Every structure is written in C-alpha cells, then in structure tokens.
Amino acid sequence: MKKWYSIRMRASSGESHENGGQHISGAERLVKKIDIETTAMELIQRATNHSRGKADFISLKIDSIPRDDIQMVAPLHIKEIKNTDTHSTKNVLREASLPIKQEILFSLYDWIIQDDVTRGAIIVDIHSGKRLDTNLERGVRVSHIDWDEAYKHKWLIENHTHQPKKLIEAMAIASKVASAGTICELCCSDDPKYTTGYISFQNTYYRIPNMKEKGSDCGGRVFIVDATKFNLDTYVHYLEKTPVLIGEKV
C-alpha cells in the first residue's frame, strides 16, 4: 500500500500557539514521498515571509497516510460577488438569502472581522446562534487537505484568478467543510493585505471582496450547522483528521 504524507506548518510570534503566541501563518499539503523535502521548504519560507509579521516559532509536522485512506471531494462552484467596500458587505450577505436569521448572520459577520484571538473556526447552531465547539481560543482546525495536482491545474485554467494561491487554499477548505454537511460557512482572512472573504452555501463558493478594512489583522471562520441533525465529535473528527484531496470524484 503506497503512502502519502501530511505536512502541516504553523507559525507564531512571541510564544508558541499553545502558550498564547500571536498567529502568523499556517498551511499544509498532502504529498507523495518524493515531494516531502521541497514542500517542507516551501512552507518554512512561507512562515518566515508573511505580512502578519516575523515568526519566532515554526512548527512543522509530517505524518504518513495510506493512500487508500484519502477521500476525494469535488470543489464547490465559484461565483464572484461585487462589493465596493466594507459598508456594503451586510447588504451582500442579506441578498445571499442564507437560511439563518439576519441578526445572527450580521452578528457572526461582525465577529469574524474583529476576531484576533480564535486560531481556528467556530461552530454555530443555525437556530439559536449559539457556539457548539468548546475549545474557545483554538476552535476547530480543518486539516489533512490538499488538491489533486492534475485536477488543480485544470481547475485554475477554468477559473482564472489573479491570486490563485489564496483562492485555491480557501476553496479546498470550503469544499471539505461543505462535504461534512455544513449548511453554510462565513470566512474572512486575518491577512492584513487580503480583504477578500467568502460565504459558501448550496454547493457554491461566493467570493466577496472588501469584506474587511485593508490593514486589519483580524479575521475568522464560522461553520453554521443544524445542532439537531449532526454529531459534534464525528463532524470535528472528519474536518481535522480525515485526509481529503480536492478533485474529480469517481
């Protein structure tokens, strides 16, 4: 049985993440053995050259994964949304007709563009708006995910963008999150130079520019679920532990 490898990088300043350090960067890949060294160097270079600042702590973890354990998940469809500035973002969210109360949706949006504490995503019940996960500062970290390389090149040609790296990483996460049974996701990057966020709903990734003010190092991610129809432990285990490649499902 051939093995693949999960390579995961996290970088922080001041202290390690576990000791309260400021998050700088995070990324990961699923690769074959021959690509381990090159990929590890790429992730280390990313950690040491990030707009959020200088990394004092870099964690690099490499785990083997049986190829047969990797699931294939198709990417979401993508749609570009016009949004001229942050002041019109709530209008965009309102017009998206998401199946969630407007006051809850707007509250979650206000939270993600101000959050500078939570390292992962939070899980919220669509009915009550209450947070369901319990690891307050860590949240849920979507992991063990990458693109099938051949399919990625095909997808990039079909969905041309001037910032392919940001988009393909966000699309990979959003597609895995959606495949877990998530009703919708709301996300905005904590990168101060990247103000584009997204919502995903009904198998579509809606890319929203100007979701936050330029220069802000805040950002967050919310998974909206129906608490009456899912098991929290199973859901989190899939997002954090199940290896997934984004590609063409057989």
From TrEMBL:
Catalysed conversion reaction: heptanedioate + ATP + CoA = 6-carboxyhexanoyl-CoA + AMP + diphosphate
GO function terms (MF aspect): 6-carboxyhexanoate-CoA ligase activity; ATP binding; magnesium ion binding
Cofactor entry: Mg(2+)
Keywords assigned: ATP-binding, Biotin biosynthesis, Ligase, Magnesium, Nucleotide-binding
EC number: 6.2.1.14
Region Disordered: start-end pairs: 1-24
GO biological-process terms attached to the record: biotin biosynthetic process
UniProt xrefs under InterPro entries: BioW
Pathway: Metabolic intermediate metabolism; pimeloyl-CoA biosynthesis; pimeloyl-CoA from pimelate: step 1/1
Highest taxon in the source lineage: Bacteria
Oligomeric and partner information: Homodimer.
Protein family according to the UniProt entry: Belongs to the BioW family.
Function statement: Catalyzes the transformation of pimelate into pimeloyl-CoA with concomitant hydrolysis of ATP to AMP.
Name of protein: 6-carboxyhexanoate--CoA ligase
Organism: Cerasibacillus terrae
Phylogenetic placement of the source organism: Bacteria, Bacillati, Bacillota, Bacilli, Bacillales
Gene for this chain: bioW
